[in-house]
Design goal:
four-stranded mixed beta sheet, RNA Polymerase Alpha Subunit, Chain A, domain 2, 35% strand, 2 domains
Length: 235
């Protein structure tokens, strides 16, 4: 794993080709944004270094296509009404609880020469014999870790090979992650990430002895029928 966090460098980072996203300023707010969504526009907000928070709108289909083709924490060049492109990162996305369509996005303007701290997802790779052969269940104890790096060095995910989980006592930790050069994991290296839970052993049901109590009246049989008793007395 990488060493301790280092001071943010001040060197200029050369521009590299990045995915582009066009936006226009948005004046519609509140419940009226529903009309924008019906017209195929996605309401969003952009904020960050040197930029006051602005309400913008994006082409919803273009945004969804972009997100499918770039990984998490990807950097995008945002052009607002044809202005100078600014590097942004998708900070948060709100989706509809039923349709799962994107209904709002937060874009954060970044500086390519400054390190930043983000959550990076863990990608579980490989196979564990305790899962494949012994019927165990892989437990994900964490889904992400905190990482610090320059924006263009932030990985979209960190790989964790579960092959070493060769017993039900084995545990993988943050220190077992594969971390690329230039990135520093800030989460405690001893934090557990994965283990295999043994299969549940079901107890066999206890079968009562068929001969036990044979011939003995049940509680219902032993209790006289009040209506039947009354009928006999009336006769």
């Amino acid at each position: 794993m990488s060493g301790t966090s280092r001071p943010a460098p001040t060197r200029e980072v050369p521009h590299v080709a990045r995915p582009a996203l066009a936006a226009t300023r948005r004046t519609v707010t509140g419940k009226a944004v529903g009309r924008l969504r019906r017209e195929g526009q996605l309401p969003a907000v952009v904020y960050g270094h040197g930029v006051e928070s602005q309400s913008i709108q994006l082409d919803a289909r273009e945004f969804d296509t972009l997100r499918r083709h770039v990984g998490r924490n990807a950097i995008v060049d945002l052009k607002l009404e044809g202005g100078r492109a600014r590097p942004v990162m998708v900070h948060a996305v709100q989706v509809h609880p039923v349709s799962r369509k994107t209904i709002h996005a937060d874009l954060f303007v970044i500086r390519m020469s400054e390190e930043m701290t983000v959550d990076v997802a863990i990608a579980f790779t490989g196979e564990s014999v305790m899962v494949d052969k012994m019927g165990g269940t892989l437990l994900h104890l964490r889904e992400s870790v905190s990482v610090r790096a320059l924006p263009d060095a932030i990985p979209s995910e960190l790989a964790l090979d579960i092959t070493p989980l060769d017993s039900f006592d084995a545990v993988l930790h943050v220190s077992d992650l594969v971390v690329p050069e230039g990135a520093t994991v800030l989460t405690d290296s001893h934090e557990p990430l994965a283990r295999v839970q043994p299969p549940r052993v079901e107890e066999e049901p206890v079968v009562a002895d068929e001969g036990a109590g044979e011939g003995a009246p049940t509680e219902e049989e032993a209790e006289p029928d009040a209506e039947a008793a009354g009928g006999d007395s009336e006769g």
